[in-house]
Amino acid sequence: MAIKLIVGLGNPGGEYAATRHNAGFWLLDHLARDGQIFLRHDSKFHGLCGKVKIANHDVWLLQPQTFMNRSGLAVVALAQFYKIMPDEILVVHDELDIAPGVVKLKKGGGNGGHNGLKDIQSHLSTADFWRLRLGIGHPGNKNEVANFVLKPPRREEQDLIDDAINKSLLVIPKIVIGETGAAMSILHTDDSKKREHKPDPKKD
């Protein structure tokens, strides 16, 4: 099936705009600019939204303005209004278990403790939607996660996340038209190359 709704997760407000938890918002901002639209607030959808053409398909973009742990309220409101099924939804979010610069695509599965995904699953009554997972890295201690995601990335991390967003933008047209296997191949092959061992020139 084609993707009819792309949701970018984040927290509203200027104090959160540059934080790691808003990586989904960052990608949606790019899609809106590329589509030459402004995302406008719609109270019935509890978020900023707009419609763009991607690969000749009409696609809704949505940034929930409910704060992360209530993201599902916005998603289900727009999806039900336009009769969009869960497997026609792509959720873009930050991912602790993936390094900065790495991006992965998957359908369904757990929420990994991500409050935005957890609430979307609850409101849709299913986990059967697509996720584009933008790596932000992990602080190493689970007790530091809440503080970590609500802080801006370091400069070198931001550069890597920006690279991952740019790479994602190239494959989103494939995801939209249902060529998810091809999109995964591009994203995941590139990621595996990054993890290949590189010899230390000092040891040559």
From TrEMBL:
Subcellular locations according to the entry: Cytoplasm
- Is Cytoplasm tagged as a keyword? yes
Q: GO BP, one example?
A: rescue of stalled ribosome
**Keywords assigned by UniProt, alphabetized:** Cytoplasm, Hydrolase, RNA-binding, tRNA-binding
Question: Site annotation (Stabilizes the basic form of H active site to accept a proton): which residues?
Answer: D94
Protein family membership: Belongs to the PTH family.
Name listed for the protein in its UniProt record: Peptidyl-tRNA hydrolase
Origin species, per record, is Deefgea piscis
